[in-house]
Amino acid sequence: MSDMIRIQLMDTFAIYINEIKKDQLVNPSRKGVTLIQFLMINRGQPVSNRRLMDALWTEEGSSNPENALKTMISRIRALLNQVSPNLGKCIVADHGAYRWQNAPGMTVDLYEIEDIFDDVNRYREDFARLRTLYARLMKLYTGDLLQRSEQNEWAMAQATALHTKYMAAVYAYVELLKQDNNYSEVINVCRAALDVDNFDDRLHMELMTALIKTNRNNEAMLQYKHVMHLHYRYLGIQPSGEMRDFYKQIVHAGNTLEFNLESIRNELRESSEQRGAFVCEYAVFKEIFNLQMRNLERLGSTMFLAVIMVSSIGGQPMDSIKQDNVMQSLMELLKQNLRKGDTVIHISPTIVALLLPTVNYQTGAMVMERIKRLFYRQYPNSNVAFNYRVGPLSSTMQEDGSAPQSAEALRMTPAALPEAERECGRQQ
């Protein structure tokens, strides 16, 4: 009985004989493994000796590259035969070229995936067939083509094309599952696809929606916080407005309160054990901001907005790990040292915004100077700069302990927050 041979090219390169991974190809030269991979991704098409030599000897020359190639082919065939009898015959000479020819019964994940993409286009109206094809694709596509293999630059174009087709197939599969209200499977599909592309906002939102649909609101909230961390920590940018607004859907999902004044009050009331400032997500901060602006307009009172930015003193980008630690410590410092009525948001990787009610310009500046002293006490000699701006949300304040009418006082409106971020770069 012949061996059952399965070859993996997605994510990493591996050969399985009767579902047992073989390690004989781990130790040979990198060029030998590259040669096998190069022939395999061309799927039966002859690859000229010149192309192989260019791929294998890109940086160093050889006095006799054609002879070196023949020697390498001979060695790799012998090595493959050690993995499984006659496996070396899969490398076939073809008139000044070589090609890979599958042995009978051999499967290659790349070839199956390419066939699935062709079949998806062929059976667009056969939804039952499509579901079967998509389910198989999710099992096979464990990562991008050869993404964990060395010297795979020559595979990048094909890997990128496959990735684009894969993501399109995942989106289509999710839409099919949603038509059947099969949100449990949507969750599985999104999580598997996010293992391949963890920065795809659409997948994150589909996953959170499916979690809400299946009454797993706590998991949706954890996923939302994970997305926020990914954007701030690895991309250094804010998530999209659509993503930030998704927070409200999670908060309001499944809220079925009794129509009873006492129960509603208990449900809404924050725990008395919560101390310090209120730290919230962007969507909540935006709602509080606009609610306060309505109150200011109605009552003629004033509120202050402060913006803090941390940066390296030398102007160079801060190390990402150090930046994370500094910002986490700053958020905790603000939470513990501001009042309960103050609201705080981590608005971008190095910027924090604060709403400070019931203060005037002088006391607002005093608050920020106190926070600044506490920050430098926590980070002495750290080469980190603490810059801030503070200004009123209303221009109606007068000289009775209020903000002076000068350029230094930021007259802020809801649309002024981005401008506040830019002003934050000026050190006090």
Write up what this structure looks like:
Strand 1 and strand 2 form a beta hairpin. Residues 256-260 and 395-428 have low confidence and may be disordered. This protein has helices at residues 30-41, 49-56, 65-83, 109-122, 127-140, 156-179, 183-196, 201-213, 217-235, 241-252, 261-268, 282-299, 320-337, 361-378, 417-423; strands at 5-8, 14-17, 20-22, 47-48, 91-93, 97-100, 107-108, 278-279, 303-312, 343-348, 351-357, 384-392. Helix 4 packs antiparallel against helix 5 (127-140), helix 6 runs antiparallel to helix 7 (183-196) and helix 7 (183-196) runs antiparallel to helix 8. It has a 5-stranded mixed sheet, sandwiched between helices. Strands 3-2-1-7 form a 4-stranded mixed sheet. Strands 4-6-5 form a 3-stranded antiparallel sheet. It starts with a strand and ends in a 5-residue tail after the last helix. The radius of gyration is 30 Å and the shape is elongated. The chain has 428 residues and is α+β, with helices and mostly antiparallel strands.
